[in-house]
Specification:
With 351 residues, this protein is of the alpha+beta class. It has two domains: 153 residues, no CATH class; 184 residues, no CATH class. It has nine helices and 20 strands. Strands 15-16-1-19-20 form a five-stranded mixed β-sheet, with helices on both faces. The chain has a five-stranded antiparallel β-sheet with strand order 7-6-5-4-8, with no helix packed on it. Strand 15 and strand 16 form a beta hairpin. The longest helix is centred in the middle third of the chain and has 18 residues. It comes from Linum tenue. This is SAC domain-containing protein. InterPro entries: SAC_dom. GO terms for molecular function: phosphatidylinositol-4-phosphate phosphatase activity.
Length: 351
């Protein structure tokens, strides 16, 4: 129950200001003391930050951190800080320790599990009640699952939250901003973890099966931008697909049934929601082709019909409906040619 839009076309390490520029450090030193963590660059050891183990307070390095009077009880090399997360009594500092990488357009993109350094005051856990201890154990187990979860990518060489089309339009003034300000916040997977390091605000996010539709600003749930890059003889070409939940106001409450019922929310703001959604896409990507892949029967059929009706009021956006479940059931993916025939002319116009 998602719609696709097509158009032609953060890292977790410490950034250090040097004059009016910001530098990304890919190799850091983690010093662990009884009362705090200290993270600093090998190249610029006077740059970095400390995190209190008592209350999670984060501060820039001072003289005592650069040349501490007490030796740390553990020193290790890390490759980036994904952020911090607070539990009941424990604050966890996420740090990348193993790097697995593959090549993408001459830039290394890394997929790494995380090792967690746990921080809490010695008496904090002792003061927890039985229910709090149970919650703490549950949250810690979830964090250990995250430690072993692949598929979270970052890069030292390029901002993979920005597509090629957008990177080509960046001005020198934009590039002078801190790296976290340059990134597209929609695709910074660890943005919530960075809230203690930077002030942040997220959009209509949530687990795929728990969040559906759009919010009043037109931001859709489950939004994913996929970029296909082609490079030959120094020339780069980019083709973008943006997938997201159908941009109407609707919900689907998860229960034990195989296919939970969905409900379209009757709201006078719906036309404005759809308009805002596609205005944002057009401003970001240029010409947009909206491909509706929903089932045309049952609840999804009602949703698809409502979507098609709203798209009639947006003549500037090309709307194409394709019942993927009907045409491509039983792995009949050769039927995708039907969809391609409908949008091939648009693809040619987009280059």
């Amino acid at each position: 129950m998602e719609a696709s839009s097509s158009s032609p076309s953060s890292s977790s390490s410490v950034t250090v200001a040097t004059g009016d520029r910001f530098r990304l450090h890919d190799r850091l030193e983690l010093l662990e003391f009884a009362d705090k963590y200290v993270v600093k660059s090998f190249e610029s050891p006077n740059r970095g930050f400390s995190i209190s183990r008592e209350d999670g307070d984060i501060q820039p390095l001072d003289g005592a951190d650069v040349d501490p009077p007490v030796r740390p009880y553990r020193t290790s090399t890390i490759y980036g800080v994904a952020g911090t997360i607070r539990l009941v009594a424990v604050s966890a500092l996420q740090r990348g320790t193993e790097i697995f990488h593959f090549r993408r357009s001459k830039n290394l993109v890394h997929d790494t599990p995380f090792q967690l350094s746990y921080s809490s005051a010695d008496n904090a856990v002792l003061q927890l009640g039985s229910l709090q201890k149970r919650d703490e154990a549950y949250f810690m187990n979830l964090l250990r699952i995250v430690e072993s979860t692949p598929g979270l990518y970052y890069s030292y060489d390029t901002d993979i939250t920005l597509n090629l089309q957008r990177r080509c339009k960046l001005t020198d003034g934009w590039m002078a901003k801190p790296i976290w300000k340059q990134a597209d916040p929609r695709f910074v997977w660890n943005r919530n973890l960075l809230e203690d390091l930077i002030e942040a605000k997220c959009y209509h996010v949530g687990t795929r099966m728990w969040r559906r539709g759009a919010n009043l600003q037109g931001d859709t749930a489950n939004s994913i931008e996929t970029e296909q890059l082609l490079e030959t003889e120094g020339f780069r070409s980019s083709f973008l697909q943006f997938r997201g939940s159908v941009p109407l106001l609707w919900e689907q409450i998860v229960d034990l049934s195989y296919k939970p019922r969905l409900r379209i929310i009757d709201n006078e703001q719906t036309p404005k929601v759809v308009e805002r959604h596609f205005l944002d896409l057009s401003q970001r990507y240029g010409d947009v082709v909206a491909v509706d892949l929903t089932d045309k029967h049952g609840d999804e059929g009602l949703l698809s019909a409502a979507y098609a009706n709203e798209m009639k009021t947006l003549p500037s956006v090309r709307y194409c409906s394709f019942d993927f479940h009907h045409f491509c059931s039983n792995s009949n993916f050769d039927k995708l040619q039907i969809l391609y025939d409908q949008v091939s002319e648009d693809f040619e116009k987009q280059g």
